[in-house]
Amino acid sequence: MGVFKALVLLQLVYLSTCMEQLDIIYEWNQLDFEFPSPETRQQAIDNGSFIPENNIPMGLEVFGDRLFITVPRWRNGVPASLTYVNLKDNSTKSPKLIPYPNWEAHNFVDGKPAIISPFRVRADRCGRLWVLDNGKIGSLETNVTKFTPSISIYDLKTDNLLRKYVFPEDQVKEESGFANIAVEDIDCDKTYAYAGDVGKAGIVVYSWEKNDSWRITHHFFNPDPLACDFSVKGYNFSWTDAIFGIGISAPNADNFSTIYFHPMASNNEFSVSTEYLRNKTVAEQNFDAFKVLGSRGPNAQSSASFVDPKTGVLFYSLVNLNAVACWRTTNKEYLMKNQGRIYMDDIKMIYPTDIKVDYDENLWVLSNRMPIWMYAKLDSNDTNFRVFSAPVLKAISHTACDVTPRSDILDKFVNKVKNVTKNISSKLNPSSSTIVAPSSLISLIVLTVLSLFV
Ligand SMILES: *[C@@H]1O[C@H](CO)[C@@H](O)[C@H](O)[C@H]1NC(C)=O
Ligand SMILES: *[C@@H]1O[C@H](CO)[C@@H](O)[C@H](O)[C@H]1NC(C)=O
Ligand SMILES: *[C@@H]1O[C@H](CO)[C@@H](O)[C@H](O)[C@H]1NC(C)=O
Ligand SMILES: *[C@@H]1O[C@H](CO)[C@@H](O)[C@H](O)[C@H]1NC(C)=O
Ligand SMILES: *[C@@H]1O[C@H](CO)[C@@H](O)[C@H](O)[C@H]1NC(C)=O
Ligand SMILES: *[C@@H]1O[C@H](CO)[C@@H](O)[C@H](O)[C@H]1NC(C)=O
Ligand SMILES: *[C@@H]1O[C@H](CO)[C@@H](O)[C@H](O)[C@H]1NC(C)=O
Ligand SMILES: *[C@@H]1O[C@H](CO)[C@@H](O)[C@H](O)[C@H]1NC(C)=O
Ligand SMILES: *[C@@H]1O[C@H](CO)[C@@H](O)[C@H](O)[C@H]1NC(C)=O
Ligand SMILES: *[C@@H]1O[C@H](CO)[C@@H](O)[C@H](O)[C@H]1NC(C)=O
């Protein structure tokens, strides 16, 4: 009985120090758009250019007063694939999406809009929005139309298009799908963008200075055949997605950053210095510059990830667990026990799809129930899409990523448990000096605590 009480007590202590530390800022049952008038909205519904249930938010980014949201054209009836909402407007928790930079960029001209289908975007510290355009229309319809993927870069002060770079044909493969972009903006004139190809494992590196790109491949970008099975909210499916999460660190002493990456179909995390990505020859000559950090454990496939440059904390999603977790990149080891849990909820956090930290040190997360949307149908009477936020320091407090190292907290628990069990054992068996049972009990309890961190 004592053992069970101690276990329950410890779990309660753990849970109470691990409150869900993100607030819900926005939530939607279905997405709607800020049309020029109610009449044009109705026309768009009537002529099929707006089919509300076909719209799903995929990527988010925050810059100044704007929260950007991408809406990929996986199905027909997406009126605008890159949008924003005004963070200052607190009149509603379910704001209508405003097309970015304007409606014109999303109208079909000669069979395609200027912005076709971005999944994720990145606002750099130099005030530029990097829009990685997947280029595909109707991937989930019977008819897919493919255009060449590209990066469009907008000036966030004027919203003018600074540059559009269309990927060279030889860097785009038949199965290619560009879903994530990381931007290394140490120098605004010598900025590099890293675009992950989730369909055909690779990274296309773009140099702003050279206005040129090259494709890097490495076997660590590939999906792990043993980690392709997913189970989200009762929907079981198999995805062979390659490199997905790309988190980029603040510059190291050598002025290069570290990229932390993982394929979607994988439980492992990897890293590489950007030194090896900035030159294709150097990458090919240094295969061992790509490192395996370690495993998050079973069932721990992750989609998006992001490194907060200030705290050095890597935030990542856990899609099977309806959770967002973290790891301090200053940790020497990437172990299960030094992964922290930020938020976990079987209703609200179904499929965390994007994670960012803004320039005011706030963490942002978007969840969108994508597998249900893909394989069944979302209930339009239920809240399906949510935007969460909290200051980074609040989000990581009392987790393994906190400034107080987890091991200290653990040691405290272990000491306390030791004292309690010493007392229990001395009561059970006052004459016994050996405490074999209690020590195995301690390890059992410690294991239980550790298992909660996964
Ligand atoms: C549908 O209606 C909208 C709103 O009036 C208009 O912008 C769009 O061009 C129309 N699309 C088609 C295919 O007619
Ligand atoms: C909404 O925003 C206005 C203006 O920024 C502010 O005065 C008001 O307190 C805000 N209301 C809430 C509920 O946050
Ligand atoms: C498929 O897309 C192509 C190119 O847009 C178009 O010409 C063709 O009519 C479409 N087919 C169907 C069945 O919609
Ligand atoms: C960058 O390169 C692309 C294609 O190679 C070209 O179309 C574009 O004009 C170039 N932009 C600049 C600013 O040099
Ligand atoms: C889905 O997968 C989970 C976990 O792998 C398993 O427990 C469950 O039985 C599966 N459900 C179906 C319908 O196959
Ligand atoms: C890193 O960049 C800074 C600023 O440009 C420069 O002063 C410093 O020498 C660089 N360090 C190295 C190791 O190149
Ligand atoms: C890339 O690295 C190779 C080998 O070190 C070097 O010869 C080449 O000039 C570099 N290319 C660029 C564009 O810097
Ligand atoms: C949503 O709720 C309304 C009112 O309760 C109901 O009439 C409608 O059928 C519901 N729709 C769905 C998709 O469940
Ligand atoms: C456990 O007991 C030792 C002395 O037996 C004491 O120094 C220590 O502070 C106690 N730890 C806790 C967490 O109570
Ligand atoms: C151990 O037992 C003693 C006396 O039975 C009690 O004073 C002490 O508080 C107990 N320690 C712990 C950690 O429960």
UniProtKB/TrEMBL annotation:
Species: Danaus chrysippus
Q: What is its main location?
A: secreted
Q: Name one Pfam family in it.
A: MRJP
Secreted as UniProt keyword:
yes
Record's Gene3D superfamilies?
TolB, C-terminal domain
Q: What is this protein called?
A: (African queen) hypothetical protein
The residues the entry assigns to the signal sequence are 1-18
| Family, per entry | Belongs to the major royal jelly protein family.
Where does it localize?
A: Secreted
User: What does the record give as the organism's lineage?
Assistant: Eukaryota, Metazoa, Ecdysozoa, Arthropoda, Hexapoda
Could you name the Gene Ontology cellular component terms for this entry? extracellular region
Keywords recorded for this protein, A-Z: Secreted, Signal
Q: Which domain of life is it from?
A: Eukaryota
